[in-house]
Fold this protein.
Amino acid sequence: MPWHYLARSMRGHPVRPPESGIARRKSIWERIHLDPWLLGLLLVLMGSGLIVLYSASGQSLDAVIGQGMRFCIALVGMVIIAQFSPTTFLRWAPLAYGVGVVMLVAVDVVGDVGMGAKRWLEIPGVIRFQPSEMMKLAAPLMVAAYLNRCELPPRLRDIVVCGVIIGVPVVLTAIQPDLGTSLLVSSAALIVVLLAGLSWRLIGFIAVLGAAAVPPLWMNMHNYQRQRVLTFLNPESDPLGAGWNIIQSTTAIGSGGLWGKGWLQGTQSQLEFLPERHTDFIIAVLGEEFGLVGMLVLLFLYLLIVSRGLWMASSAQDTFGRLVAGSIILTFFIYVFVNMGMVSGILPVVGVPLPLVSYGGTSSVTLLAGFGILMSIHAHRRLLSR
Amino acid sequence: MLKRPNTLKNSEQELRIFRVRALLAVLVVFTLAGLLTGRLVYLQIVQHDMYSTRSENNRVRVEPLPPNRGLIYDRNGVLLAENRPTYNLTLVRERVDNLDETLALLVDLLELPDEEIEAFNVRSRQRQRPFQPALLTSDLSEEQIARLAVNRHRLPGVEIEAQPLRFYPDAEIMAHSLGYVGRINAEEMETLDAGRYAGTHFIGKTGIERFYEEELHGQAGLRKVETNARGRVLRELGRTDPVPGANLTLTLDKSMQMLAYELLDGRRGSIVAIVPATGEILAMVSTPGFDSNQFVTGIDVASYRGLQEDLDLPLFNRAIRGHYPPGSTIKPFLALAGLVEGVITPDSTINDPGYYQLPNDSRRYRNWLRWGHGRVDMERSIAVSNNTYYYTLAHDLGIDNLHEQMSNFGFGQRVAHDVQGESTALMPSRDWKRGRFNQPWYPGETLSVGIGQGYWQVTPLQLASATATLANRGHWVKPRLARQIGDTPVPRDLPNTLDDIQLANDSWWDRVFSGMEKVISGREGTARRTGVGLEYRMGGKSGTAQVFSLGQDQRYNADELAERLRDHALFMAFAPLENPQIAVSVIVENAGGGSTHAAHLARAMTDAWLLKDKAPDVEEVREVLEEDNANVEGN
């Protein structure tokens, strides 16, 4: 298969495991099960994020320190997770998935309302927890664990089972309602199925089915839902309401030009014209203050992380590891694309933060936990190769 | 052991599948990254200028700085129109948690009418940006402000905003002369200079406020400010100060104005007083008055309808728009016309049998005294207001001469320099009648005009102005209301539209004056009771304007007529005779003969002006009026 050879030569890496059973001396990174390249890139990204956050938070040092603390906690979590071997994740995946589903049901029944949606589960005084975040990892792990037992490419029966595994948490999240998370949970799990070799014919069939569903869907929409779609297509039609965010964010980015207005000098950001400027729309602050150059540097940084992640995924030594690693890193890119696309006005507004830059702890913890799993898969491969 | 190779084979295949898919994923990732890059290039390079401008417009706001409207003072520096600080209620929708609840609470607290809420909803929809406050109601009372203060915590997003508002301290007595300002309407908006009026909500609608709008308004300034998204001003980037409107000092004397208002005592009527030498209008009153302050904030429909439907027409400015037959008050002017045209001399006489007849006409034009005044010369004709003398004079002059001479006194035209909305009234002529009725002029109509009846109509201002010209011995001075605009005095000599009136012998003026003095101080003067105790020499002339015309030989009894059908009482006067300081015209609608009512008011006005320290007591004047009314006699 030509793709296979092409991929191999591109990586410059032998496809087969090393012949020799004798391990060479492990480096310090291998001993602590971390990938120095990925870790370095993530640290650079988080550092840049904090610089932008200082500006986006209205020059609040408290926000930067708070976010820094969350990063530290999340990094510690990542390091701990990286110490477990992939077989642990494989073994615990069904349990994590099961507990996650139970908690999602609990949220829908008794959850706390925050921002107009039930997302939080709280044991008062002990912990406040968002089960849908956990599902972002549990769902792809579960699908990968299931597919690991099947012969690949998956047969129709396996695909139906995967569909159920994915569908349950996605629906439970969607009715909270939290469309952004629901989207990310489903894409993380779907990527696993796609990487496992879902047949092209089936992919094409689903695509056609989806396209055919648009007209009847439009006919059955409520007026306000149609209005939302129309506002996305033409933000100027509702300049004070839903269109306001997009008008202001594109104005911020566009007015930044090639080099930007300078750090802390963005009028759109500093004068609060930009909504959600330190959370979902933080990229517009970067675009305004650092211009196209700043945006492309950040995008390049993300691409480096994704490239490194994909390389690590493809060098994993078993199906479960590959599928999980590939899903984690591609979901990461989906975060980036959906957020930047939404802020720059080519995607509708869904609440997806910019990974490791937007203010907020929960998504950082989940993301770095994912990178922990990725590093574990990468760092434990020789032990499994026997 | 059998299973293992099988698994290994699967492994190889699975790895191949994964690598193909991963490579595809790389392609997709880079395609999407390229898409984002393209979008960013489009926004930040291609469309950069457009977004730059938009961001600048977001940030920089040009705020108009409306000028303070000029104040208006009377001739002694008494404030007649000021700018009072008032408080408006505004609402920022984005800061209100529950709009319906908040509005309901406000309606409850402030007792707002439904129209205000509807108007607010309209204004609210017209906002340009979020966080822009919309006006809810204007001119809050102290009590309303207090109630708002107590409930402040329940009303986030509701704010009180200060705005200067025009206020007339003596609205009722000054309303017609000063006029008033009101909100700029759509029609006015189209013709206004937008830059000059930026931020201004009010404009002069009538009177002085309208005539001197340009001077009073001033020039709007502006400031460029940087604001945040909530509209809060963060710093000023640049500023042009507004030029405040000029203060206006009027020729009006508030105490004279007030006296005239009180003298008229709620009746329908008008008093105008002018300084003959300068044309300065001392008083110009039309009654009933109205509260012009109501019009500043916008009068409510019910009150407006009330004013409009009032039979006394309080909104009608009688002083400049009221059309009255001048009656006998014009007899001195006619005598002067006869002198100018050489039809009479001061010494020519007629014999009055009590009526006048045109040649070859049986109709008798009656003197008011049925049995006639006998031999009458010019002075006596004025003193006793003999009609027959003036029928003869008018007939001898003819309508053409009569029209020309009366026009020289300003009848039938606008006379004042700066009175907004002045009416020309009507000085009839042959041409006018042909144009109006397509009929020739009949000689009998000349006789009617000769005693100030018929088609002839004057405004109180015209009558006062003509009296001032007469007092000036024919020298024409334009009446005016403004004495000083800012620091610039209004020039004494304004471009004149009328020539001075020349007599062949200057001493003839004294003969006319003498006749007018006898009206008040003479033994048989029609207003002789007014002359009792006079401390200076005064000339005047009474007049009666018929509202209800009488047929041939009908007799007139004021008591039998409904109040509104009674004659209007007129009087014109000036004083002192040798050096006139004031000329007055008085018209009291439906008051009966001029000698009884209007003359007393005229004298009260001249007393007030000439004997400053012995200003007349309005109550005393009223007593005299009542006493007089008890024994009405003809004029």
